[in-house]
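Researcher: Sequence of Putative 4-hydroxy-4-methyl-2-oxoglutarate aldolase follows. Predict its structure.
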Amino acid sequence: MEDDTLAQKAARLGCATLVDAMNRVHGHRAHIPAMSSPDPLRSLFGPAATISYLPYREDLAAEGNDFRYYFYGALGNPPGAGQVLVLSSGGHADVSHGGGTKLARADSTGLAGVLADGRLRDFGQLRGYSFATWCRGEAVRWGGDTVMPYACAVAVEISGVCVSPGDYIYMDSAGGVVIPSASLRRVLAIAEDISAEEAEAAKGIRGERAQPGA
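Model: Prediction complete. Tokens:
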């Protein structure tokens, strides 16, 4: 698939180079600070499918509108392969937004990954799934009495960055970057140029000679 090739290219370039390329194309904040993962060697890449979380309110928690409802609302039913499920924090990045049980439904859908601006439970279980997972850290307590999913397929905020459905997400151990889909190929091309520039600069630095008296 084409996205497989793009994912390989993004992983080869790495987060820092992609962030530099985004800075040359767009003036808005696009970088996500480093997060935790059950498998930090597994990078994440794909178009965003979003779920917005809010602080829990009993009177607004609609019956039947559980995580499953918003999961398929964001990803489609059946879900399209290669997507990144993005969960906003709802103002509580320190509590669990899900775990191995809820996300088990994603293991057979071809999901590229999950990016949560909150914590997730069951890192051992998530590590064994077919998709990459990045979040604020591991949780041990259920968080459903603190945050709740409230909307899907809407723009959300992740670590101070606006993520719109369809934006491309790249995440590795260094951090992440959010790339508008219309700019993806331009950003990747500029990132290739930056990578070549940096390789040439490093070559020049390695060939430097100390100046007398330095």
